[in-house]
Amino acid sequence: MRPLIFESDCVRRDMEDIASRPVEFAALDNTTVLVTGANGMLASYLVFFLAYLVETRGLHIRILAAVRSREKAEACFGALTERPYFRVLVLDLLEKIDLDEPVDYLFHAASLASPQHYAVRPVAVAEPNAIGTYRLLDFAARTRCKGFLYFSTGSVYGAVSGAPEVYEDTPGSVDPLDLHSCYNESKRMGENWCKCFAHERGVPAKVVRIWHTYGPQMDVENDPRVFASFLKCLLSGSDIVMHSTGQETRTFCYITDAVAGFLQILLKGEPGQAYNLCNTDQCLSIRALAELVAGLDPAHPVKVVCRPRDKTDSYLENRTYGQKIPQNRRLRELGWECRVSCEEGFARVYQRKLEERRLAALRAPTTL
Question: How many helices and strands in the chain, by DSSP H and E?
Answer without folding.
Answer: 11, 15
